[in-house]
Specification:
Elements lengths: L9 E3 L6 E3 L6 E3 L5 H6 L14 H5 L1 H6 L20 E4 L15 H14 L3 E5 L5 H12 L4 E3 L6 E7 L2 H11 L5 E8 L2 H8 L3 H17 L5 E6 L6 H14 L3 E6 L6 H14 L7 E6 L6 H10 L4 E4 L13 H11 L22 H12 L16 E2 L2 H9 L24 E2 L3
Parallel strand pairs: 4-5, 4-12, 5-7, 7-8, 8-9, 9-10, 10-11, 11-12, 13-14
Antiparallel strand pairs: 1-2, 3-6
Helix pairs in contact: 4-5, 4-13, 5-6, 8-9, 10-11, 11-12
Length: 434
């Protein structure tokens, strides 16, 4: 894939894993800023945009062209979302996703994926774990310095986050990696379940609280005003202890509280209730964003994430193709399309009107999925929801009859809406004979 300075104008072919250039509808304007005041105002430097023509189907079909229009989003403010129905999408493909056994990415591949994630419109890109290795640090820094400074015409630029354990060395390394972005974030964590504190950390609850508070204070002291804290294994932690430690890190300066179901242990109603209780019982809860990070050990990561959103979580962490540790993470494409199709009618009961939305541009789902699959070497199962090879194929005669008469008989979304253009070479969408 080739990129031109100031504009992202290339993406994977919508029908194949090979690359082909096509233009976006929005310009990207480069901004390199060392001053905090310039970053705060997200100043943009105009640049000439090189473009390539849309395919003939995109340029002549207004319905297809409409798919490429960027969606509106509220102004980004750490710890606050002015639209109570807006859900931030936090992508951790480049961090948790790369931790999948057998998945490896070069720095250049990470950069290309990050640029596609920006076109997709994710709110936060977790670019890696900077302390893990010099290569990981360099990869995170490159994404922060490049993608984290490519501001779109509508003002959007992704937050770039670096993960760190709750110690000063990790946090300083993470800050050094991400601070060049317009919107840098430090994401720090420590385990809070009884089994983790006893068997892994060999720490008392009081010691864990002190470590967490000191970590957040140290990150804030470095100049970071966007700090995410995760109580690892929250899904198996004592809620009363969570109330205590989360209130303390809010006082210390945390702006996002991420609640991980680290082992994929919770049922959807169980996890949703946990989010609800935390929002009701943590001191200072109204001053932060609650987030979910759900593993897929029981196949419930997407369901748990959506249950979290129903109960007030306004950041959902996920990965492209659902890749990640062990059985993987909540799948970005599943979470996003569930909200796109059902967000305005099935989430009543939480804060806001119950009409949840994201600013993701789903038309970039397929090219991004194919890129991640090709670069990591992790192929999607054919029946994977949204992006599997069979997701839009119909072989049953009864289904084919319905499709011929009216595609909506068996399609709840069109392949075109996720960037899979029906009729293009190797798209696979449609009726299957045999």
């Amino acid at each position: 894939m080739r990129f031109f300075p100031g504009a992202v104008i290339a993406a994977l072919s919508l029908g194949a894993a090979s690359t082909a250039a096509f233009s976006t509808n929005s310009k990207i304007i480069s901004s390199r800023s060392a001053s905090s005041s310039l970053k705060a105002s997200v100043a943009r430097v105009s640049s000439t945009i090189s473009t390539t023509a849309l395919s003939s189907s995109m340029s002549t079909d207004p319905a297809i062209a409409e798919l490429y229009k960027r969606k509106s989003r509220p102004e980004y403010i750490p710890g606050r979302i002015d639209d109570p129905d807006y859900v931030r999408i936090f992508d951790t493909t480049l961090r948790d996703g790369e931790q999948s056994p057998g998945a490896t990415l070069t720095s250049s591949e990470k950069l290309e994926i990050a640029r596609n994630l920006a076109k997709l419109g994710v709110d936060i890109i977790e670019a890696g774990f900077p302390i893990a290795s010099p290569d990981d640090f360099a990869g995170v820094k490159q994404i922060a310095d490049v993608v984290g400074n490519e501001v779109f015409e509508d003002g959007y630029v992704p937050v770039v986050a670096g993960l760190s354990r709750a110690n000063e060395k990790d946090i300083a390394r993470a800050w050094d990696a991400v601070k060049g972005a317009v919107r840098p974030r430090i994401h720090t964590f420590i385990a809070t379940s009884e089994i983790h504190m006893r068997s892994k950390l060999n720490k008392t609850p009081d010691e864990v609280v002190a470590i967490a508070v000191n970590a957040v204070k140290y990150a804030k002291g470095l100049g970071c005003d966007d700090i995410e804290f995760s109580p690892e294994d929250a899904g198996r932690s004592d809620p009363e202890f969570l109330y205590r430690i989360l209130a303390e890190v809010i006082d210390a300066g945390a702006t996002t509280l991420n609640i991980p179901d680290t082992t994929g242990w919770n049922m959807p109603w169980e996890f949703g209730e946990l989010i609800k209780k935390l929002r009701e019982n943590v001191r200072g809860a109204d001053n932060v964003i609650f987030s979910t990070h759900c593993q897929n050990d029981l196949g419930l990561a997407t369901a748990n994430s959506l249950s979290g959103a129903l109960n007030g979580a306004r950041q959902l962490e996920c990965t492209i193709n659902g890749i990640g540790e062990r059985a993987g993470n909540a799948s970005l494409e599943e979470v996003v399309m569930a909200l796109a199709l059902k967000g305005d009618e099935q989430f009543v009961g939480g804060p806001g009107t119950g009409k949840l939305r994201t600013a993701i541009n789903p038309v970039y789902i397929t090219p991004t999925s194919k890129m991640v699959s090709e670069y990591t070497g992790m192929k999607c199962q054919p029946h994977k929801a949204i992006v599997g090879a069979n997701a839009f194929q119909h072989e049953s005669g009864i289904h084919q009859d319905g499709m011929i008469k009216d595609k909506s008989t068996y399609e709840i979304m069109t392949p075109e809406s996720i960037g899979l253009m029906r009729g293009e070479s190797q798209s696979g969408a449609g009726i299957v004979l045999g």
